[in-house]
Amino acid sequence: MPHLSALQYTLAILSGGLVGFTLGLLGGGGSILAVPLLLYLVGMHDPHVVIGSTALAVSLNAYANLLAHARAKHVLWKPAVGFTVPGIVGAYVGSVLGKLMPDKQLLFLFAILMIVIAILMLRKKRAQSAQEFQKANVRWTRITSAGLIVGFLSGFFGIGGGFLIVPGLMFSTGMSMIMAIGTSLFAVGTFGLTTAVSYAASGLVDWWVVLCYVAGGIIGGGIGSIAATKLSTKRRALNYIFSVIIFIVAIYMVIENWRAIHG
User: Fold this and answer.
1) Residue 127 binned pLDDT confidence (cut-offs 50, 70, 90)
2) Where are the membrane-spanning stretches (predicted)?
3) 3-state DSSP call for residue 134?
4) How many structural domains are present in the chain?
């Protein structure tokens, strides 16, 4: 695995900071930019190493945030485990298949996923009810099925999958948004760790990049959380801008990788 320059490692810290800032500011979706930032800003050339490295970085950041949510009692452990255990199987299978797929085809599919996420983020969210979590509301078959599917997508693309996990938990249990966000972090961290272990076993993790990304993410996340409080009234506009950025980056990736595939 070729070593990166000092400038590239610095850019990796800045990239991690940008992802962390977005997560702190908007509460989700930011990690989807982790892969294109490493590819096109930092200049890493192996998409599989990028996916393996970002999967571990996202995992560590998710576990760090999980501790804070657990202390605030925003984690419901039984649904978290029920979602995550089948998802581990999905994440491992997804990671194995992802490693087998040629680089350009994998990035092309990743870009399509980014477009879907951007569109979902643009949709106006309905007001959340104050419905409390009830054990009787838990649809375990739905939770385990969703965990398996989301775990597969997480492993295949090396993403956290929180944007899918949160609504899935709310829909299948009736828990509030804040509880779903806290509970989802256990799955995000575990799916990312499963994917990273699979990629690391194949020598597809750059440990220094992971360290830079996590360090930048911690700093950026703290700044983003502070900004979120001050810009709370403009959250919808910020979410819209970020969705447009994701969409533009995705279109660029679609064009570039389509040319590479058919060129």
Assistant:
1) very low
2) 12-42, 49-70, 76-94, 106-123, 143-166, 178-201, 207-228, 237-255
3) coil
4) 1
